[in-house]
Structures are given as structure tokens and as C-alpha cells.
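Incident log, structure service

09:12 report received: a user says their structure output differs between two submissions of the same chain.
09:20 pulled the input from the user's history:
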Amino acid sequence: MTVIRLSEVTKAYRGRRGIVRALDKVSLTVDEGEFLMVKGPSGSGKSTLLLAAGGMIRPSEGQIVVADEDLYALSSGARARYRARSIGFVFQMFHLVPYLSVLDNVLLPTALVGLPESHSRATSLLERFGMGGRITHKPGELSTGERQRTAMARALVNRPRLLLADEPTGNLDPDNAAQIYGYLTEFHKSGGTVVVVSHDAACEQYATRTVHLSEGALVDV
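09:34 re-ran on a clean worker, output below:
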């Protein structure tokens, strides 16, 4: 089954020197159960591709279908609920809410979908990720690795079928990076689909397929 289908997707911005195409007619499919790595240099369009595929950036042209749902045919509210229910996100910069506790940060996605037993699910994930003793702490009181483990728990709390990760190890030392790849691999082996955008060569050993972006377009290497 195809989980993600991008058809001739373009994302253009107006810059100081004219139109910039962050994505240029990208067509890509990701099948259920894949662990896809998207490689490319900085500015190649990797993050734009991931955010568009996750329903967070509307493309200028083209269609994006996730699990038979045309994301940008949905209203913004319906798309937000779909993201919360079906897609987990992990970001390089964590995007934790600084004034919320670790536990409340993990619970944020459950507010849109009303997951039964969400509190116990969040607590269980934090325990599993070695964060059981930190659930009342604020993000500013955590190490870099602890912040990313909190973000990983938040991404998984609603039991998504798809996990999208944008440079998830970019701010981590090798030991913490290996731990995050371990969690991504565990999710993948349980039947989940993973898409990681990264320039970290270590990611390739975990991926089942790698594609390359250059100047907004998929290229053969």
C-alpha cells in the first residue's frame, strides 16, 4: 500500500532575486513499512518536502495524498486533526513548548483527537525513553538528548502510522543520535512507515531506501 504520494509537487517562494523553487515538480511514492531517507545539501528542499508531505506547507502546484487522503483538499482544521491522528513529527530543534512540563508537551497532540488513556500512554512512553523521572520538568531543565527523547514520545503518543523526522539527530552527539535511530527503527519494525530527511550518513544504515534532492528536484546519483 502507498502511504505517501507526491505528484508533480512544486513549492515556490518570492525572494529578493525573484521566484525561488524550494521544490520543483517532485513526484515520489513511499510505501507502507518503508524507512525512507531523503538526502541532500542544505537548501536542497528536504525540509520543505517533509513539511509539505505532512500537511504543514501547502504546495504551489501538485497533489499530496497520504493514506488515500488528499491533504490539501481538507480544510485547515480537518488537516490539523488528520495530522494529529495519523502523523508523528520529530524536528531538529525539538519545538517543545517552554512553559509546559515534559508530560504536558507529550500530551499536546492528544488534545485534537481525544485519545483514550492518553495520560497513561504518554507516561509509558516517557518511562520507556528514560524520562520517567523528568515528567514535571520544563524543557529548559533538560539536556539536548532529553529534549529529543521528549519530542520522540510526543510524536508517538497518538500511535501514528507515519513518522516524519527532520534532521532528528542534527543537534545530538553520536550516543544520543544512535538512541534516536534506535527508536525510529523500533517504530519501523513494528510496522510503521518512516521518512527521515538528513545529511547524516549514519542514517543510511537504518534506511531501507534513500533518495536524493538537489535544488528542489529528485536526482539520480
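09:41 both user submissions now match this output. Likely a transient worker issue. Closing.
09:42 reviewer note: The beta strands are 2-15, 18-31, 35-39, 61-66, 69-70, 87-91, 162-166, 193-197, 209-214, 217-219. Helices lie at 46-53, 76-86, 102-107, 110-113, 118-128, 144-156, 174-189.
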